[in-house]
Structures are given as structure tokens and as C-alpha cells.
Design goal:
binds S-adenosylmethionine, 7-stranded parallel beta sheet, alpha/beta, Alpha/beta knot, globular, about 20% strand
Length: about 160
């Protein structure tokens, strides 16, 4: 008997997180945007997240919030065949306007004081930037990246 071949959408997933975050107040808003825009998970690297009122919806109750000790730990636990995308205002970064988001990826942002260190940038598979000569707030930058992903609907 012939069986119908089922088709599963390959619409992928993404995670988003911050390296060595210093101020919890800065990322609560990012967690909220991440959940609303469809993140599969959120994470910190090198600095644990402590609950903060700026995450008004308690995102950690809705999607997993992981903590990675350092970049080795993050890279060791990247999901299979998933790109690590650094988000940083850097000359080598691709302008988001022309960027095609990978189907499966993990976005990594820097902290408010010092951004992504050079050695961390060097370990990202891809690097993207938003327009402007000056840095945006980390939650604002992350939210814009996720909105751009949603508009472009990677497949
Ligand atoms: C306030 S910024 C860090 C600024 C830091 N003082 C510096 O000079 O690098 C915090 C984070 O937001 C993200 N970000 C802010 N503006 C950005 C932009 N225009 N393009 C890409 N990422 C940006 C980056 O992940 C950055 O590490």
C-alpha cells in the first residue's frame, strides 16, 4: 500500500544571548522581545542572569534560559548544524540590510560597557551590524535583529 510522504516545514529556530552581561536591567527587555519574536531559547555566557523586573513576563518560565561558563562551553553545546552569529558594530560585520539570516542560528551580543571582545568575535561564524556610528542599547540592538529575522523569514 502506497504511503503519503509527510512534509515537515524546515523553518528552523534561533536562540539569543549576551556575553558577560554586567547589568541585569539591560537584558530583561531583550528576553521579553526574544520570547515574543519566537526564540527557542535565551542564554548568558560568562555571567549568570539574576531575575530582574525589566523581564516583566518572566521569560525564563516560558522558554529555556541557559547559562554557559565561557565560549568553549557555548560552542560545545551549539545545536547541530547551527551558526553562531555575533552582533557587533565592527568593520568586518555584514550590514543587516543585506544579511540573510540562517535557518538555524544563535545570536550573541556584547555587554553595555565593552561589547563583544575580539577573541569572542573571532569565534563567531558570522558577524552582523546595525546602521549607525554609535552603539545602541544591547536590548534594542537584539530586538531589531530579531525583527529583521521575522521580516525576512529565513527558510
Ligand atoms: C552598548 S553596546 C556596547 C558598546 C561598547 N561600549 C563598545 O564600545 O563596544 C552593547 C551591545 O549591543 C550590540 N550593538 C549595539 N549597537 C550595535 C550595532 N549598531 N550593530 C550591532 N550590534 C550592536 C552589540 O552586541 C554590543 O556589544
Amino acid at each position: 500500500m502506497a504511503r503519503l510522504k509527510q512534509q515537515y516545514p524546515a523553518n528552523g529556530f534561533f536562540g539569543i544571548g549576551v556575553f558577560n552581561n554586567k547589568e541585569q536591567v539591560n537584558i530583561g527587555t531583550l528576553w521579553r522581545s526574544a520570547y515574543i519574536m519566537g526564540a527557542a531559547f535565551i542564554f548568558t555566557v560568562d555571567s549568570k542572569y539574576k531575575k530582574h523586573t525589566s523581564d516583566v513576563i518572566n521569560t525564563w518560565q516560558k522558554i529555556p534560559l541557559f547559562h554557559y561558563r565561557d565560549m568553549d562551553d557555548l560552542i560545545d553545546h551549539l545545536p547541530y548544524d547551527t551558526r553562531l552569529v555575533g552582533v557587533e558594530l565592527d568593520d568586518r560585520a555584514v550590514d543587516i540590510a543585506t544579511y540573510q539570516h540562517p535557518c538555524r542560528c544563535v545570536y550573541l551580543l556584547g555587554n553595555e560597557q565593552s561589547g563583544l571582545p575580539r577573541d569572542v568575535i573571532a569565534r563567531c561564524h558570522q558577524l552582523i551590524k546595525l546602521p549607525g556610528e554609535y552603539s545602541l542599547n544591547v536590548s534594542v540592538a537584539g530586538s531589531i535583529v530579531l525583527y529583521d529575522r521575522q521580516l525576512k523569514k529565513p527558510t
